[in-house]
Amino acid sequence: GILGVLLPLYVLKRMHEQEIELNYHIELIAFGDEEGVRFPKTLLGSKSLCGDVCSADLEVVDKDGVTLKSALEFLGANTNEITKCAYDKDDVLGFFEVHIEQGPVLESESLPVGVVTAITGIERHRLFIQGKANHAGTTPMDMRQDALVTASHIICFANDLFCNTENLVGVVGELNVYPNAVNVIPDRVDLTVEIRSPDKKIRQEAAEKIYQYANKLASEQNTAINFNHNYEMDGIKCDEKLQSILGEAIEKNNRPVFHLFSGAGHDGLAMDRLTGVAMLFLRCKEGLSHHHEEDIDYHDAIIAAEVIETFLLELEEA
Asked: Between β-strands 169-171 and 188-197, what pairing exists: parallel, antiparallel or unpaired?
């Protein structure tokens, strides 16, 4: 994010002006398209640094049929050399990222910053529900094959499951209804289910319960359902030593140390394969993220900058 690039840049600029030298090298990296919005391929930048991207990964397509490879080459990238981005594990001391919390916890605790303990795992499923279109006025209610009614029950079931399972969150974020006409019984519905938890077992059990319920429901309502498990990224635990150093940096700046896990995915999910990961969260206004009113307090940014600088100096001593 913007904060994750500009705040470290500010810290490094200030350290440079103070002629502070460290016994290790620092690189500031701005990753692109961590979320995989256009293409169903997340963390491409960070995976490249880990040597985790191959030519097959570049053949995924967007909704218009454009491949990731051709889109990158249109921007001037030489995709034949993507493997050269990979770092050597022996050369890397750690990966550190600063990010807004994207949630309300720090604000509810009246704290400007927090130490991230883990980053959630994420999996995504697409459900294709097939019913039968027919006239909405002449088809008796007990003779309908309404794909949207089936979908609505699945949505409610999944939401109840997410609400009543510890360390689990999820959402039905996309819904496409066909033919989407006012007087026609919905023939087909495609929907997505995203499931998040740091615990892979919890995610898998939730997905299995949704699949079982959906199959039972489809049988009862005379509709058909196909499933596509199209994305999965396991969660990680942040490096304990780096967490400890980050906590000490917060204490040295006279702030309480607060630990929390991230319910959002980050590049650390990929970077964990290369090196230990540390993350600093900043309080954000009303916990808003992916929203036009997403914001942080200027003073929190200054506090975070001081914590980052202290962390870098403490890391040298450690």
From this structure: antiparallel
